[in-house]
Amino acid sequence: MEETKFVVLRVVGNDEAVLKIFGEDDKEAALAYGESAAKENTAGTIACIRAWFDAAGQRRDDIMEIFEAWKAEGL
Known about the structure:
This protein is of the alpha+beta class. The protein is built from 1 helix and 4 strands. The chain is globular. The termini are far apart.
């Protein structure tokens, strides 16, 4: 069974790193964390997305919904 989760990522070029994963009901907490992380970000973009995960806990890379993105200063 699949479920959605909120994820805060740092994206630099084609590379992305998961900063933190939140439950499907934690949108506001994920957005607050992303905004906080963005204040100290110096490269790339911080993004708050909702992604789908399979029963094994693996993220499906082909489907996501972007809620907010914050660019690093100077970009």
